[in-house]
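Fold this sequence, please.
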Amino acid sequence: MPDTLSRPPRPEHDFRRAAILFAGGPAPAANAVISTAAVSFLRNDIEVLGIKHGYSNLVDFDGTPLVEGSHYIRLTHQVLKRTRNSQGILIGTARTNPGKHVSHASHLDDPERTAPLRRVYDALR
């Protein structure tokens, strides 16, 4: 039986990169949540990107590749050091909501309503 304090087993997966995005406005302990999630990925050898300013840059995606430092940052152990208690949100936030025009399952068949969601998807590919 494994020790209760032992590290959990590594999950088996085929992805190597994850993106973290914070949206909806400021919230207490946002950096703690972002840091904890990022460290969980990093401990499993998964590269972590922090998408800056919520969905804002993704919703306006026009096909031009996202730029590190402007649209996203790499979240490494070094970057995350001492961020849990710092003021502000490490990757920023915004209230942009790409799904605000989708309120019913039938809306997913409407290209106009789903266009912002499509741009977000395309930006992250």
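The mean pLDDT is 92. Strands lie at 17-21, 47-51, 72-74.
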